[in-house]
Every structure is written in structure tokens, then in C-alpha cells.
Amino acid sequence: MKKTDMASLISAAAAGDSVAIERLCYQYRPVLHHLRQLYWLRLYDDDNWEQEARWACYLAAKEYDTRYHLTFGRFYQTRLKHRIITLLRRQFAVKRRCDQYAVRYRNLENIADRHRSLQQTETMAMATLKADIALYYEQLSKFERQVFYCILHYHSNAEIAQHLACLEDQVYGAASRCRLKMRLYMTL
To answer: Highest taxon of the source (predicted)?
Structure first.
């Protein structure tokens, strides 16, 4: 785009021309995508992000001056980034901590449906996992079973070695074999 075309587009956007603002936002859409990858705003969907981008574009067009020795794209990026940081500050403000757990009313039904389906899926997955663990456990030697049991109860290798009256290297080897057998069993 030519410099004069860009200047007229920026001045039209500064005057409040919604078509000019949309064109500028479309042209600098990669800026928005980049910032969306860097920041996460709670309860913000695509429409919310685009609305914030349009607002930042309008304000950037109003405040932009060619004497800044910055391109409009860089100025807009800075303006949008500062807007996002302001929103993040508001989101994490101490006096709004209770809002952190708030859910939109229209989303409650979707959340309940997802929760029900997850419960059913988790129940089936747990039944399968229990059967799989029993089969995996049968593949271990007696010593590996003892080490595996101790590992599941958050004991260190030194504690396990002392409890089983063996060397720490033996415990380390048994734990390695347990992991290897687990990987092999899970890939079947």
C-alpha cells in the first residue's frame, strides 16, 4: 500500500470511519494473532479479541503522528499490547479475585454437559486402567513388584533399599525395568 493511501486510511480511521478501521485491522491481523499467542485473557473468545483490536486500532489512528518516526504497524502493535496488559491487570486485580471463578450463565449448561460426558469417559477409562495395571503388575518379578509398590508410596531409592535390604543400584535397576515394561505395555 502506498504511503499516501496509508495516511488517508489512518486519517479516515481516526475520524471514526468503521470501514477504514476494519481495513486497518485486517491489514494488521498478524499482529493480533501474535499477541494472542503470547497472552491469554479469561473468557475472551475471537469476537472479544477482535473488538479489542478494533478499539486499539481506532485509538492508535487517533494518536498516530508521523513525527514519531515509527510505522503505524509498530505504533498499533504497542497500543494493542498495552491494552492487553491493562486487561490482564484488571483480570488479576486483588479486588476482582472473586470474579475469577465466575462463569457466564449461558455457558453453565455446556459445562454441565461436558462434565457429565467426562465423568462417563473417566469411569470407563478407570475400569480399563485398573484391568491394565493388574495385567502389567503380573509381568513384574517379585523384586520389581516390591520396588514398584514402594515407588507408588513416594519412597526414595535409599529408603526402598533400606526397607528391602538391598543396594540402591539394585533398586534403581528394578525401577528402570518397571518403567521400560510400562512403556512396552502401554504401546501394545
So the answer is: Bacteria
Residue ending a domain, choose from 41, 71, 100: 100
d(CA 156, CA 144): 15
pLDDT band at 17 (very low <50, low <70, confident <90, very high): confident
pLDDT-derived band at 11 (thresholds 50, 70, 90) equals confident
Which residue has cell 533398586? 171
| Cell numbers found for residue 117 | 460426558
DSSP per-residue codes, 8-20: HHHHHHHTT-HHH
Q: Which three cell numbers stand for residue 64?
A: 498516530
Given the C-alpha cell 476494519, which residue does it identify? 22
Q: What are the respective helix, strand and coil percentages of the chain, to the nearest 5?
A: 80, 0, 20
CA distance 19 to 29: 15
Could you give the number of structural domains in the chain? 2
Return contacts of 44-51, CB within 8 angstroms, 24+ apart. Answer: 50/25
pLDDT at 103: 61
Which domain, by its residues, includes 47?
3-100
pTM: 0.49
CA distance 105 to 158: 53
